[in-house]
Amino acid sequence: MTYDYHGSWESSTGINAPRYGSGTIYTVDQSAQYWIARIGSNKNKLLLGIPFYGPSWRLTSGNTGISSPGSPAGHLKYNQICQNVRNGWTRVFDNGQQGTYAFGNNQWVGYDDAQSIQVKINYINNNGLGGGFIWEMSGDDSTGSCGS
Questions:
Q1: pLDDT single digits (tens) 7-61
Q2: How far apart are CA 106 and CA 36, in angstroms?
Q3: How far apart are CA 26 and CA 59, in angstroms?
Q4: Distance CA 64, CA 54 (A)
Q5: What is 79-110 written as a DSSP string?
């Protein structure tokens, strides 16, 4: 499983499924490399999970970046996040972690969007993995309101 690296058990914000990270943070790359080292030539059987939702926090300070203090506020589906971004939330792609987050109205969410999903598709292809899967489809943008 290559998602749920951050969530309601934490008192600070974090991207759901960052490709990279630093320190003790778990990442998609760390998980994939762990399993590649164990399955070797069978890495084409390894699939990356891509979440169509993100953990959310109520911000408890003026900070809005990754690791900002916050209290858990459940999860938002991708289609809900898109609506919030369309309604004025700030969307940020973090180059270091290769993941996306958005914030507005004192709320913060770390999620995957078209840009971070493309990063993961490239990672799958560049590492010869078997593919990816979505968890879960009810979070998809079935109305086309997210744009791409």
A1: 999 999 999 999 998 655 789 999 999 999 988 878 999 999 999 999 999 999 9
A2: 40
A3: 22
A4: 16
A5: HHHHHHHHTTPEEEEETTTTEEEEEETTEEEE
